[in-house]
């Protein structure tokens, strides 16, 4: 009987052990399966991340490479130039050239045309002027017969309008919107007329030499609504300048003569004004003043200079001033400011230039036989001599320059 109970206990213990073994094996199998599942999920996530990150990594690498190439090209210096296209049939004595939206505006006393980088004519229009002058703003331009009465308005696609004024034209300016303004000499009075792109008259304003003075310059805001005028008059034997802002929109309709703001500068001459993007600039004989405000411009900053300013140049991002140096080694000093009035760089140089300008983001200097190109940071890109007499020189694309000589016109690239 005792042996029977022993056998029963052994059988029960064996069953329990077998059950525990199966349970452990099952648990172990579950863990292994769960681990494999986790591994599969992790691998799937990694694959997805790789799919997402690989294009980003490629794009980042391309962007970095592009940035490095851009920096290299921006700071690269050249020792020579190559003529890409030439035209010896051009009348460079009576024809003038200016950059217009990546193309070339060519005009003379009897014709205006736009040509491409191969000097091929895209369109042309005939007229009759004695002393044509042009003002360009991006893809808009106005050509006026200085001391005459004809004006033509145009864009890169052709002439958009024309007008015959009642008085002699002193100066004409155009904006990005195509709106134009002209200073007209009427003898005892001067007129400042405001025109649409098609040549229709929007507004006219008669001025007096005593009040508010003689108009020295005019400029139009990008919005085509605000016009800036610099006047000059003599008060108690002292030359005084007055900068006025006219608003021809709703904001100015209740203001006298539509002048929404104005600033008087005693003893200061303001010979030049210009809209630079959203800011307005007044070049003074002692520095410059910046204005901001789309509808009612206000003074934002004035930079005063102790030295005599001999040249100025500017574009939408830069304002440049040139002064004479006392040093024999370096004839001139150049200071370039951002359009918020911060000094970007100072550079001494000795190039005996006769013309200086901003051209497609670069600083261009030249005289009758020498060319100099600086990038927007003041790094010298090229300096060399030219065979022939230089009439004009400007940049109108990536490493594309128009070189006008007495012998013909060349499109060149620096090498």
Counting helices, strands and paired strands, the structural category is: alpha+beta
Mean pLDDT: 89
**Largest sheet features:** 4 strands, antiparallel
- Unreliable stretches: none
Give the neighbour order of strands across the main sheet. 1-32-31-30
Our measurement of the CA-to-CA distance between the termini, rounded to an integer number of angstroms, reads: 115 Å
Classify the oligomer. single chain
Number of separate strands:
32
What is the 3D form? Answer: elongated
How much helicity do the residues have?
A: 10-25%
User: What is the tally of helical segments?
Assistant: 1
Instruction: Tell me the Rg in angstroms.
Output: 36 Å
Strand residue percentage: over 45%
Topology of this protein?
Blueprint (H helix, E strand, L loop, with lengths): L1 H74 L5 E7 L8 E5 L2 E5 L3 E5 L5 E6 L5 E6 L2 E6 L4 E6 L2 E7 L3 E7 L5 E6 L3 E7 L5 E8 L5 E7 L5 E10 L2 E10 L11 E8 L5 E5 L2 E6 L2 E6 L5 E7 L4 E6 L4 E6 L7 E6 L5 E7 L5 E5 L2 E5 L3 E5 L5 E6 L4 E8 L2 E6 L2 E7 L1
Antiparallel strand pairs: 1-32, 2-3, 3-4, 4-5, 6-7, 7-8, 8-9, 10-11, 11-12, 12-13, 14-15, 15-16, 16-17, 18-19, 19-20, 20-21, 22-23, 23-24, 24-25, 26-27, 27-28, 28-29, 30-31, 31-32
Describe the model.
The chain has a four-stranded antiparallel sheet, with no helix packed on it. It is elongated and about 145 Å long. Helices cover 18% and strands 50% of the residues. A hairpin with a 3-residue loop joins strand 11 (180-185) and strand 12. It has one helix and 32 strands. It is α+β, with helices and mostly antiparallel strands and 415 residues long. The chain has one helix at residues 2-75; strands at residues 81-87, 96-100, 103-107, 111-115, 121-126, 132-137, 140-145, 150-155, 158-164, 168-174, 180-185, 189-195, 201-208, 214-220, 226-235, 238-247, 259-266, 272-276, 279-284, 287-292, 298-304, 309-314, 319-324, 332-337, 343-349, 355-359, 362-366, 370-374, 380-385, 390-397, 400-405, 408-414.
